[in-house]
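Structure first, sequence second, as always.
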């Protein structure tokens, strides 16, 4: 309600199932109907986020939930699986679909595909470059994030939480291992810090640039945040869009994880990572001065009992503190930790501000005109809507109905968010209507008015989305991802170069199988244009992002739809079985879950490295002049586990994070996909093609896991 009351034009929320925030206090259908009804009074749209990966045994429930949500009157349904969205649109074209940021649309090719598949809007990946945003807005309606938490990994491509314990971020269960402490084996980064933790996004005045570029909707991440924060964020951007200066102070006081970042649309800024601070630290108000054993904070700002504070020392959170009385030229703070001169004080709870923010109540201006004439039906006009009673008014024997009676009655709104203006009341002929009957008439009139605003309940056309039958084919082929295909033995070679601008022809020399060029999930439009020439050296492209479908079609080349497509059901698999040369199923599926997807051209990640993150930013803060530009680093967590961090080059440096253990698991009827990006591909595939025993292959891999074959483990 805070978003609506603060002036939002639309809100988004999750259902109890299929939400990317499964731990949030999500909504049932009855609650959803109430919210839609309330929001409709103010012309506010409600969007339902059903943006998780859907497994085969969940398909029927998911499709039913989409229909049921639409029946409640929501304005749009947000979906991550682009192929399910396509199937829904074909059967129910009246359902408005928005493509989730989890789908990773970041260039015009992805936008074209979304439009072709029936989506009316794309919620862009947070990493999308501004130049690409401008191009995409010419293709399809766009929505961009302007405020809230950022993921360290490119949208829809994070598997760290999944492989750390089966809590899939793509299924709304992320445990945020990125917010833990890590060290990196590079000078200046050896000490443990929050190396994978971005600051919160706050684009500020840059929202005007997005608006002028044609962006239709500006998204504030408000789920699992307090109402005060939501109200402050909406008010801040309302002010900026209206020509004001915003209220960044209110934002900082309600929630602030260190310095804000403006994100990646205009390039990485110095505040992108928050390496020292994790939790809410609020707004800086002053420094500690120890006076007579008490802790004093000199400031001209005023605070009150109940205000809460956080103390930082050396940029690191030290402890919490409370207001402990006013002093001359400042105030005292109470802390269980002994503070020192110079410790920095931040306010984290401002009771007066919070009360003001949540006290806002949005009211609908209601103009009422009533007509009560003896012998006629009682009538009332509410904002142009006319309601007529069911019985004619009789003539009063004693006290007739008066104009003041009618006016006083319609001023009673109870819990309705109405601000009533009685424009005209016509009472003539001594009409009789008891006060109980008059109140009933008012309630019925207001109820009919609300129903009029909300519109009639709707039902999608009859029909159901067909769920394709499970596949039972076998694929005996092998495919290998490698940084160098020389000396590699496999049916399909997928070259994953360290530098896309280099001459790639020597790296595929004498490879006997089909040759595919590996394309990451994120490519700018300019980078895509630059890669087209290199792609001509290959038989096809292997792509980790949906945009690959449109790019391959434009190039007239076969597509290998990579692991990043997250294929987890037969709707997705059926489309790719017919429209891609090859495809891979999701690496988050168990053996039982993946078995139904074994099409004749289907592969499954079987052995080698498990990429758990695609990083579009530089984890070293773009210290290019001091960078050693190594191809590989090691990220070490608090338990001592070591995660390889690979650097590669497109137009800028990009990074990939791999799991601390390699994968080794037999996937039966699937084609074997081997990720040898960090391995000696020639040696490993020589042993695979020679039928080496499992133990020898495991020795070559080092520490191994069976992944999600039965239970996910590192």
């Amino acid at each position: 309600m805070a978003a609506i009351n603060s002036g939002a034009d639309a809100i988004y929320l999750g259902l109890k199932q299929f939400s990317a925030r499964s731990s949030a206090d999500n909504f049932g259908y009855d609650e959803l109907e109430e919210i839609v009804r309330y929001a409709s009074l103010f012309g506010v749209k409600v969007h339902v986020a059903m943006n998780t990966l859907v497994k085969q045994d969940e398909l029927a429930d998911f499709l039913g939930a989409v229909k049921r949500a639409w029946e409640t009157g929501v304005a749009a349904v947000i979906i991550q699986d682009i192929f399910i969205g396509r199937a829904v649109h074909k059967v129910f074209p009246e359902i408005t679909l928005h493509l989730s940021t989890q789908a990773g649309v970041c260039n015009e090719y992805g936008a074209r595909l979304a439009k072709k598949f029936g989506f009316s809007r794309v919620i862009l990946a947070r990493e999308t470059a501004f130049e690409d945003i401008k191009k995409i807005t010419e293709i399809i309606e766009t929505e961009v994030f302007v405020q809230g938490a950022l993921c360290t990994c490119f949208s829809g491509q994070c598997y760290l939480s999944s492989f750390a314990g089966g809590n899939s971020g793509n299924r709304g269960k992320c445990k945020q291992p990125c917010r833990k402490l890590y060290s990196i084996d590079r000078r200046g980064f050896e000490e443990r810090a929050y190396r994978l933790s971005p600051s919160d996004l706050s684009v500020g005045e840059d929202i005007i640039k997005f608006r002028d570029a044609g962006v239709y909707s500006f998204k504030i991440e408000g789920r699992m945040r307090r109402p005060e924060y939501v109200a402050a964020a909406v008010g801040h951007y309302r002010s900026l869009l209206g020509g004001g200066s915003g209220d960044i102070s209110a934002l900082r006081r309600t929630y602030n994880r260190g310095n804000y970042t403006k994100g990646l649309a205009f390039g990485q800024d110095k505040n992108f990572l928050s390496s020292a601070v994790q939790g809410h630290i609020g707004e800086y108000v002053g420094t500690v001065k120890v006076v007579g054993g008490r802790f004093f904070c000199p400031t001209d700002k005023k605070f009150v009992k109940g205000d809460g504070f956080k103390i930082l020392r050396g940029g690191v959170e030290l402890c919490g503190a409370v207001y402990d009385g006013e002093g001359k030229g400042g105030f005292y703070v109470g802390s269980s930790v002994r503070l020192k001169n110079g410790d920095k004080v931040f306010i984290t709870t401002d009771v007066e501000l919070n009360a003001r923010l949540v006290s806002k109540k949005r009211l609908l201006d209601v103009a009422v005109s009533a007509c009560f004439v003896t012998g006629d039906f009682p009538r009332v006009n509410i904002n142009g809507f006319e309601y007529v009673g069911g019985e004619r008014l009789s003539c009063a024997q004693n006290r007739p109905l008066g104009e003041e009676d009618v006016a006083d009655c319609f001023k009673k709104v109870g819990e309705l968010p109405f601000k009533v203006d009685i424009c005209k009341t016509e009472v003539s002929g001594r009409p009789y209507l008891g006060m109980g009957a008059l109140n009933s008439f008012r309630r019925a009139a207001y109820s009919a008015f609300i129903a009029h605003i909300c519109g009639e309940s709707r039902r999608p056309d009859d029909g159901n989305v067909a769920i394709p039958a499970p596949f039972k084919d076998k694929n005996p082929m092998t495919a290998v991802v490698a940084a160098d295909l020389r000396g590699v033995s496999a049916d399909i070679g997928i070259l994953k170069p360290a530098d896309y601008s280099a001459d790639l022809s020597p790296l595929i020399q004498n490879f006997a199988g089909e040759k595919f060029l590996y394309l990451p999930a994120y490519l700018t439009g300019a980078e895509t244009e630059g890669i087209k020439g290199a792609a001509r050296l290959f038989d096809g492209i292997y792509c980790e992002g949906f945009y690959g479908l449109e790019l391959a079609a434009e190039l007239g080349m076969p597509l290998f739809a990579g692991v990043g497509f997250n294929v987890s059901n037969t709707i997705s698999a059926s489309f790719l079985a017919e429209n891609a040369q090859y495809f891979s199923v999701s690496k988050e599926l168990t053996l039982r879950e993946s078995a139904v997807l074994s099409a004749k051209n289907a592969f499954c990640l079987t052995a080698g490295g498990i990429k758990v993150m695609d990083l579009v930013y530089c984890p070293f803060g773009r210290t290019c002049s001091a960078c050693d530009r190594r191809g590989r680093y090691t990220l070490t967590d608090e338990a001592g586990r070591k995660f390889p961090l690979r650097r590669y080059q497109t137009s800028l440096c990009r990074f990939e994070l791999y799991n601390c253990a390699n994968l080794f698991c037999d996937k039966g009827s699937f084609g074997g996909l081997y990720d040898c990006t960090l391995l000696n591909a020639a040696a490993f595939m020589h042993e695979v093609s020679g039928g080496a025993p499992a133990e020898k292959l495991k020795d070559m891999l080092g520490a191994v896991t069976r992944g999600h074959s039965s239970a996910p483990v590192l």
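Margin note: The longest helix spans residues 435-454.
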